[in-house]
Amino acid sequence: MAEKQESLGKPNSQSEEEKKIPVFTVLKNGAILKNIFLLDNPPATPVAITANQEFEEILVVGRHPDCNIVLEHPSISRFHLRIHSNPSSHSLSVIDLSSVHGSWISGNKIEPQVRVELKEGDKMKLGGSRREYMLHWIPISRAYDLENPFVAPLGEAEPFKEMDGKEHQVSCSSSSSSIHLYVFNYFVSLVSNLSYIFSRMRMALLFRMRVVIWCRIKIHHFLVRVCCHTLNVQLRQLLQCLRR
């Protein structure tokens, strides 16, 4: 009898479904930076519901402080994107609010003021930010489990792994080799710059020597002409004296 009462007190898993909430996940290089639960007043304990109400929650993403989700990247518009979530059908859709730098879903730019349904695994990019954003549903028990905090399973995100001694030596040797390569490239560039400077100085000296030689030749020609003219005048005077 007690077993029957306990079975009556427990919810039927086949008829009842645990409530789910939408999550706005922020990623960078495949790693999760932040999970934002799109729920104004989350309950303290998981809730099982028997019927879903037909309503749609609307949230706005942008740089303006009045937005539900505030993103501070300068390329994101003040009111950039609107999110529509339907708890009954667990559907998510977005509308670009005529943003300046646009919005992308799985690499495809979406048209402004056009509602686009999101599929599972779709990633969004807003403006020129390198971060990616995902919208998906998770059970509310998983979202507010303090002992096991929610982290979305992503194939691209690799967990941090401590290096052992050999890997540390390899990384140190690679870093030292990169430093040596940088120093070598620096000295090569320095030598090339010095050789260029010396070549320019040599060209300047050669040009100066050519100018000096040209000036000397011109002066020599001028002196020769002056001497010739003087001799010519003296010879004429001598001839005139002899004729007299």
TrEMBL record:
CDD domains: FHA_PS1-like (cd22691). InterPro entries: FHA_dom (IPR000253), SMAD_FHA_dom_sf (IPR008984). Residues 59-110 form the FHA domain. It comes from the Eukaryota. This is PSL1c. The lineage of its organism: Eukaryota, Viridiplantae, Streptophyta, Embryophyta, Tracheophyta. GO terms for cellular component: nuclear membrane.
